[in-house]
Amino acid sequence: MTRIIADISISLDGYVTGPDPGLLNGLGTGGEGLHTWAFSGDPEDRRIVRETTERSGAVVLGRHLFDIVDGPKGWNDESGYGAGEVGKPAFVVLTSQPPASVRTSDLDWTFVTTGVRDAVATARERARAASARSGKDLDVYVMGGGITISSALDAGLIDVLTLHLAPVVLGGGTPLFTGGVARTLTQRSVTRTSTATHISYDVPR
């Protein structure tokens, strides 16, 4: 079964970037602390990164995040999707207009201009095809940014919400939640490590 999983790191005060994020400073001021866990040597952190990367049949991201990961300080052979794992699933970008060129042309990019539902549907098709090729169940991960995840949640497209709660207070930046549909989630699991608290919730449809 292919699940749609929203997966993102977040600060204690609810931000997924620090203040003033930009092309050369994607996580904003002080935002690097959000992803300390993804590069740590903690065995549980490493397990979570590895298992998430291995289960990723397709990944959805917004255009702003694409511009950062495809930009001059973005992903490379040492650090890409899955941090040091550098996974290469299919990537589906939600955008109003595809870019004129792509730096990371070795990755499988699809650009969807018709909204978040179509982006998730395209990713589901790609993940199911990858599952058939590999012989194991693979999932769709909606990795961000915050607007893309909140839009997918509000549209009722998410099965599981996974938050990597970093022990930082950023005082501003890009919030994950800014209103939207009220809902009660069911806690699935909690894993505490030396760098973060990893929490997964089932999301009612």
Automatic annotation (TrEMBL):
Highest taxon, organism lineage: Bacteria
SUPFAM superfamilies registered for this protein in UniProt: Dihydrofolate reductase-like
InterPro entries listed in its UniProt record: DHFR-like_dom_sf, RibDG_C, Riboflavin_Biosynth_HTPR
Residue span(s) of domain Bacterial bifunctional deaminase-reductase C-terminal: 4-197
Signal sequence interval, chain numbering: none
Protein's name according to its UniProt entry: Dihydrofolate reductase family protein
